[in-house]
Amino acid sequence: MDNFVTLYERLQNRCPAVGPALSQQLINDSWRTLQSEREWSFRRRHGTFAPPNLYTTGTASTNVGAGSPTLITGSGTTWTQAMIGRQIRIGGLLYPYYTIVGWISATQILIDQPWAGPDVTAQPYQILQIYFPVPADFGYFLFLISIKDAYRLWTNVTESDLAMLDPQRTNQGQTYAAAFYDYSSQYGGVIGPVIPVTSPSNPAPISTTSTGYTYVANASYIVEVVTGGVTGTATFKWLRAGQTSFQPTIATDSAAQDLQDGISVYWPVGPVYVAGDQFIINAQSLVTAGVPRYEMWPSPTYTSYLYPYIYIAKEYDLTVQAPQLPPFVANRGEVLLEMALAACARYPGADADHPNIYFNLKLAAFHEERAQQMQWDLMRNDEEVGVTNIDYQQYPMAPAPWLDGSWQASHAPFMTA
């Protein structure tokens, strides 16, 4: 059975002028071309969207005025770390949904962007999951179904459609569609060193981190020595710039102490720390795009509503670290070799002083024809495994509810016949 390594080595043996780097590229070009030919059975994957229960216990308040525009505080709440990635709406239809990106305690969470509008205090709220990420290798849906309601969801609906049908997102409970929303955000960043503010010559703590920076925006953190002394005796307090008050005083320690947002400090043993000394740690947020997220509409609110799906995985490259091919392609690795040899036969060489002796356009046509015959053979074999091309004069499962136009209309009220 062939794999990436055996194929590019065979290619280089047949056509030494291409060299190792180009031979690897040509095999991968051939592999991507083959993947794009059809919805191969080996590209099918599956997953399930599993919504959590709607959570509304207690009340929630925002903290823009206190200098923490992404902090939400609760009263009577038991928020958990499992809520990261879910959405929260506070105060009803006047306000949009925000995504929870950080958990601090049972009464403190962080949202993905600063709260827009004036602060709200002790308001009812909802935490649920509206936006669902898909696997990293996701290409597109083959289908998505609702088990409980026994129908297929629409996956060709857009956010523009939902903006017209339900701009306030008032509908919840029974989901009919999944619309592409955006890409999930991956939070990270750079945490700077400790910068002395009051007395640069005095001893200072050391900036470190155990998790990496996790706050959603650039920020500065102020650390102040409260009680002077050696490590273990001296105490300190801290705040994020913009907040109105320091956090409670903490005893210094030679081990790393987590403050917030991935910011940590430790206090080396030996020096005597001076009361009143202040230090700043600057951190830069770096937000990158993750995997696609799809909005489930209307918003599901019960764990008993499960949504299995089959998707077609996106095309990918082979590597030396991951050289494996799907078994039935590995058994016919010649197809990729022939496709790559056709490209080699069209390559005249790096320059006039380094010609490619394999260069021959007639030979390229010969390899292309052989590769095409092998592809047709692979497609026929794959069709026997995962049937895609089949037509019925009459559905063998008829009569069936999805053949009834009124049934379709009742389960997809925004679609018309």
Question: Explain this structure to me?
Answer:
The protein is α+β, with helices and mostly antiparallel strands and 417 residues long. The protein folds into three domains: 100 residues; 159 residues, no CATH class; 102 residues, no CATH class. Helix content is 20%, strand content 31%. It is built from seven helices and 21 strands. The strands form five sheets. Strands 2-3-6-5-4-7 form a six-stranded antiparallel β-sheet, with no helix packed on it. Strands 8, 11, 13, 14, 15 and 18 form a six-stranded antiparallel β-sheet that branches. A four-stranded antiparallel β-sheet has the order 1-19-9-10, with no helix packed on it. A hairpin with a 2-residue loop joins strand 5 and strand 6. Helix 1 packs across helix 2, helix 1 packs parallel to helix 5 and helix 5 packs antiparallel against helix 6. The two termini are 51 Å apart.
Secondary structure layout plus pairing:
Layout (H helix, E strand, L loop, with lengths): L3 H11 L4 H17 L8 E6 L9 E4 L8 E5 L11 E4 L7 E8 L2 E4 L13 E4 L2 E3 L4 E9 L4 E2 L6 H7 L11 E20 L9 E3 L10 E9 L7 E6 L9 E2 L5 E4 L2 E4 L11 E20 L9 E7 L13 H4 L3 H12 L3 E3 L2 E2 L5 H25 L19 H7 L6
Antiparallel strand pairs: 1-19, 2-3, 3-6, 4-5, 4-7, 5-6, 8-18, 9-10, 9-19, 11-18, 12-17, 13-14, 13-18, 14-15, 16-17, 20-21
Helix pairs in contact: 1-2, 1-5, 2-5, 5-6
